[in-house]
Amino acid sequence: MSDRTPAVPVRIDPRGPRFAAGLTTLVLLLVLATGSGVTLVAQAVVFAFGAILGLRWSPYGWLYRRLVRPRLGPPQELEDERPPRFAQAVGLGFAVVGAAGYLSGATWLGIAASAAALAAAFLNAAFGYCLGCEIYLLAVRSRARLSHG
What gap in Å lies between CA 43 and CA 27, rounded to an integer? Predict the structure, then answer.
């Protein structure tokens, strides 16, 4: 086994990120209703845990594993953690920009960034369509095409 052997990707229950997207949708609705940059900073911290440490370390992932998953049957299939983890990083970027907007007085920026993040979270929560995951997969396919041709 060489040092170049790729690590086996972490596999996750796909219902967990969808549950997290539902909670994120609620938090972002609250942010837009109140204009609270502090609440958006809290959501940014949640995104950071998922993006940097992995979804199992995210507070919403913990809630899913402790409160929801035990009440469900086992997942029919598992998915690669990398696309939803990338989506958390994208959400983190929007949350940081939005929080900076709200906290600096550029409320329009806070609203725009929060609304964009809300749209993505809602798509995942309501329809199971992870926009950040799709962007990740598009980038992987593009990189593969560029390296082979």
Answer: 7
